[in-house]
């Protein structure tokens, strides 16, 4: 009948409204629940951040970290001020033992040369003064200055370069090479670091070998 059909239609409509209310209600609830979950998640993140901040400020954990941060800040300040420049590594090999040995060997060599020159010049001086005295001529070498030169050699207050030059002169005398001795004597006069009066004495004593001693020996 018409009445029964209308009642059934109204019943369906009512049921639909109830379903829609339930769906709407359930959607609202799910939205609320999602919002609550999101809010709780944010709160959890904030709590973790706070914990991390507390840990950074904690003296137990952050002593080393604080020191590194302080060092980093200081470096940044220095860099900003233009006081930090890029450094390049210097590649070299340092061998102290080897260097010390070489230096000691060099000093020993100079010392031995100075000692041999001292003996040689003392002997030459004695012959020189004896010859001039016997010949009755005035010596071009001042005895006091000559003695001063020998004292310089004895106390080693003479440059190593002068020691080398003197040793070369002595070696050429022993080789009896007059021509090379003349050239070496000129070189000594040009390069010597001695006071002029000492240079003059050395030149006179070696010139004496060139003019008086070696020619006589060569004739023999």
Automatic annotation (TrEMBL):
Domain of life (superkingdom): Eukaryota
Region (Disordered): 1-80
Biased amino acid composition, Basic residues: 13-24, 62-77
Biased composition (Polar residues): 38-57
Protein name, entry field: ERIC1 protein
Species whose genome carries this gene: Bucorvus abyssinicus (Northern ground-hornbill)
């Amino acid at each position: 009948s018409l009445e029964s059909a209308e009642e059934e239609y109204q019943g369906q409509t009512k049921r639909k409204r109830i379903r829609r209310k339930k769906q709407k209600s359930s959607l609202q609830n799910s939205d609320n629940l999602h919002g609550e979950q999101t809010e709780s998640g944010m709160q959890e993140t904030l709590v973790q951040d706070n914990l991390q901040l507390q840990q950074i400020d904690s003296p137990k954990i952050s002593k080393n970290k604080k020191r590194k941060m302080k060092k980093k800040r200081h470096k940044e300040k220095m860099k900003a001020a233009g006081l930090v420049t890029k450094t390049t590594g210097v590649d070299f090999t340092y061998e102290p033992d080897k260097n010390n040995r070489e230096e000691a060997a060099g000093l020993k060599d100079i010392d031995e040369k100075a000692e041999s020159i001292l003996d040689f010049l003392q002997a030459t001086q004695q012959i020189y003064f004896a010859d001039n005295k016997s010949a009755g001529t005035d010596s071009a070498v001042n005895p006091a200055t000559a003695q001063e030169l020998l004292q310089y050699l004895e106390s080693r207050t003479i440059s190593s370069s002068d020691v080398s030059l003197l040793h070369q002169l002595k070696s050429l005398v022993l080789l009896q090479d007059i021509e090379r001795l003349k050239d070496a004597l000129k070189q000594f006069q040009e390069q010597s670091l001695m006071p002029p009066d000492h240079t003059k004495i050395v030149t006179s004593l070696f010139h004496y070998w060139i003019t008086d001693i070696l020619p006589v020996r060569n004739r023999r």
